[in-house]
Write a structure and sequence with these properties.
mainly alpha, 2 domains
């Protein structure tokens, strides 16, 4: 198991480097840098002024060098002028003596995530705050989605072809086929709009950032949960149906074991192996889902920050968001692989 985890961790690190380099390359294309210069300077800047601004900001260096500095494995750039010394690891303009005392490395590995040009604040503080808000949203989504989906899938798979199976399967298909932006708009129009008359939820998701309660937080949680619930329920139902037709289940029935004991003691554990993997893989999907839902309900979390960073060409913030997304995806996949091996001992680790 140790060798398995070590090998997967190595592949995970290599994958993270490749993905972040691709994002770094796309965000540092010259049109994006030119737009950044004109946004921070003047939209009427000439080409010479844009190139001068980018040179002073260290953006005109070779791409591998900039990527190494951003990671923190290469020394940060410095530029001497008549006004003083500027650089990646230097705050503002410093003298030659002050620049000599500044750290040489200041990248992601050193905890320096850069400065947001939109929010005018440190990227690390923005990410930690917004990720905490999204973590709260995802926690309640999982609390509602996972038990409900497993219950629906187990009930549907216990008796294949029954009325219960057909009804719950239809419900699962409907929820999976309805995107978040459709169900979210419907929920807002029906339950919060004064035009319809059902003002059951008077709070807004924005107020839930400080004080979350049922009225201001249930609709975004329900919107995300419904879409993923159907998929997990269908996978659980398929797995449960397959297990219920296994030979050892038939043997237990012939021995006169109660149907409830057959389901709980024999079928359920084996049936949950595949859904466990699916549940762990929902975390990357949740990151995509919160982008839509947080924008729709104006809940200023991780997804909302991603939209703001992409829309305003905030390169440092966009890179930080991509790093967090890659880490979340890869770590959840690693946990999924390890958990699958533990749940199914028949899997050989070669």
């Amino acid at each position: 198991m140790g060798l398995f985890i070590l090998r997967r961790t190595g592949v995970m690190i290599l994958t993270a480097l490749c993905l972040t380099f691709i994002v770094f390359f796309l965000t540092n294309l010259y049109p994006n840098l030119e737009k950044l210069a004109k946004t921070q300077g003047n939209f009427r800047m000439s080409d010479e002024a844009v190139e001068s601004w980018l040179t002073k900001g260290g953006y005109m260096q070779p791409l591998p060098v900039k990527y190494g500095q951003w990671l923190g494995v290469l020394p940060g750039w410095t530029l001497e002028s008549d006004e003083g010394v500027t650089g990646r690891c230097i705050e503002g303009t410093a003298t030659v003596e002050e620049a000599a005392d500044a750290p040489r490395f200041c990248g992601i590995l050193q905890g320096d995530w850069g400065y947001s040009t939109v929010f005018k604040d440190e990227v690390s503080g923005i990410i930690s705050t917004r990720l905490g808000l999204t973590g709260k949203l995802m926690f309640w989504v999982l609390v509602l989605m996972v038990p409900s989906a497993l219950l629906i899938g187990v009930l549907a798979g216990m008796r294949e072809g029954s009325v219960t199976d057909r009804s719950l399967s239809t419900f699962s298909i409907i929820t999976t086929a309805t995107p978040e932006y459709v169900s979210g708009v419907i929920f807002i129009a029906v339950f919060t709009s004064s035009a319809v008359g059902l003002k059951w939820f008077k709070g807004t998701a924005t107020s839930a950032m400080e004080s979350a309660n049922f009225e201001n937080f249930f609709l975004p949680v329900l919107t995300i949960s419904l879409y993923g619930m159907g998929y997990i329920a269908r996978m659980t139902r398929a797995s449960m149906t397959e297990v219920m037709t296994a030979q050892y289940i038939r043997t237990a029935r012939l021995k006169g074991v109660k149907f409830r004991d057959i389901v709980l003691k024999h079928a359920l554990r084996n049936a949950l192996i595949a859904p466990f993997t699916v549940i762990m893989l929902q975390f990357p999907w949740l990151l995509n889902g919160v982008v839509i839902v947080e924008t729709l309900f104006n809940y200023k979390g991780f997804g909302w920050v991603l939209v703001q960073a992409a829309g305003n060409n905030d390169i440092e913030l966009l890179l930080a968001v991509s790093v967090v997304s890659v880490i979340v995806v890869l770590v959840t996949q690693l946990i999924s692989d390890i958990g699958y091996v533990y749940l199914n001992p028949r899997i050989r680790i070669s």
